[in-house]
Amino acid sequence: MASDAGITSKIRVESLNKSFNVDGRRELVLDDIQLTVGEGEFVSIIGPSGCGKSTLLNIVAGLDSPDSGTVTFEGSPGVSALGRVGYMQQKDLLLPWRTVLDNAILGLELHGMPRRQARTRALELTEFFGLKGYESQYPYALSGGMKQRAAFLRTMLMDQEIVLLDEPFGALDALTRVQMQEWLLQLWDSLRKTIVLITHDMDEAILLSDRVYVLTHRPGRVTMVLDVDLPRPRSYEQVTEPSFARLKSRLLEPLREQKPKEAQGLAGKEGL
Ligand SMILES: Nc1ncnc2c1ncn2[C@@H]1O[C@H](COP(=O)(O)OP(=O)(O)O)[C@@H](O)[C@H]1O
Ligand SMILES: [Mg+2]
Question: Ligand 1 in contact with 29 (CB < 6 A)?
Answer without folding.
Answer: yes
